[in-house]
Amino acid sequence: MVKAAISLGSNLGDRLGQLRGAVRRLEEAYPILAVSSLFLTEPIGGPVQDEFLNAVVLLELDESPEQLLAKLQQIEDQAGRVRDEHWGPRTLDLDLITVRGATANSEELILPHPRAHLRRFVVAPLTEVWRDAQLQGGTASDHLDNLIDQKALRVAKEWKDDRIQFLDRGSAWVWTQAVGFVIFGVVVFADGRWPEGWQWLGLPPIALAAYLMLQAAAALGEAFTPFPTPREAQLAARGVYRFVRHPMYAGIVLLFAGTALLVGSVWVGVVAVVTAIFFWFKGGFEEKRLRIVYAAYDEYRKQVRGRLIPGIW
After folding, report:
1. What's the CATH number where 269 sits?
2. Which of 95, 120, 289, 307 is catalytic?
3. Sign of dihedral through CA atoms 233, 238, 242, 248?
4. Do 125 and 62 fall within a single domain?
5. pTM listed for this prediction
6. pLDDT tens over the chain, length 313 residues
7. Which residue range is the domain that position 160 belongs to?
8. Does the active-site annotation cover 93?
9. DSSP state of 31
10. 50 is catalytic
11. Which of 15, 20, 93, 289 does the annotation list as catalytic?
12. b/e map of 185-209 (b: 16 or more CB within 10 Å)?
């Protein structure tokens, strides 16, 4: 038996599910030696398209590389792969990158892969599981430092089973959020007042904030977490989630804005504006991960246009 490396990629539909399915099918046919971490990568070449999820599988091969290639194409076809656009988006892309001790240069197969050494989305996960894998012009580790201009973000080490464990839970966002809450508590008592008579305008947004946050927490249930890293549960798309994608964050912003009016504080108003900007970016960070975990999230985003403000923002 010889060692062979397979590159996996997907940027259409249930990306994570497609990769998991490919690993399962490979496990049914070959002994698996290693599965790399999961990487989020930008597409290279071709039309404008979504980011890819990529990984590398290392397996033991007791047949010809051509037979393995035929098996990979069969798995792609089972996943609904359509080959109608060069470097276009795809449900599943399986490439035979290299086979230890083997070379090929035919119309059907070139080994090592002719462009793998130019793609960080291949080299980064390959280096993780097989540093001295032979590519065109050197080993995988030789080429890695030459590709630092290409984005390949390692997002999860354990991912091929039913649960995904992100490497970074987004702790920096939570700590920043906590500091913001402390600042909010301090500036509530600071000087800087609105004109008299505006204060009671703060009660409606505070009441709406309480409703949004309570409803959001109820919809999430045990899946609720302050970290911008989703737990694999049912996608929350009902209740207040039908109007805004991040009702908890929207509620916090409304609470701060309403409090600014209620206490008549300009500084609390400033904190509310900064908080809105913060949660906009935190929501964007979180949505990248929601798209990985939930295949239906793209369709949900099309239906619910507002991240914090329904239909607007």
Report:
1. 1.20.120.1630
2. 95
3. negative
4. yes
5. 0.81
6. 799 999 999 998 899 999 999 999 999 999 999 999 999 998 887 777 788 999 999 999 999 999 999 999 999 988 877 665 556 678 899 999 999 999 999 988 999 999 999 999 999 999 999 999 999 999 999 999 889 889 899 999 999 887 888 888 899 999 999 999 988 888 877 656 655 666 778 889 999 999 999 999 998 888 888 888 887 678 888 899 999 999 999 999 999 999 988 888 888 889 999 999 999 999 999 999 999 988 889 899 999 999 999 988 8
7. 2-165
8. yes
9. -
10. no
11. 93
12. eebbeeeeebeeeebeebeebbeeb
CB atoms within 10 A of CB 212: 24
Active-site residue (options: 14, 25, 81, 305)? 81
Whether 240 and 117 map to the same domain: the answer is no
Within a domain: 274: yes
Q: Is 95 a catalytic residue?
A: yes
Domain count, the chain: 2
83 a catalytic residue:
no
Catalytic pick among 15, 90, 291, 307: 90
How would you label 57-69 residue by residue, b for 16+ Cβ within 10 Å and e otherwise? Answer: bbbebeeebeebb
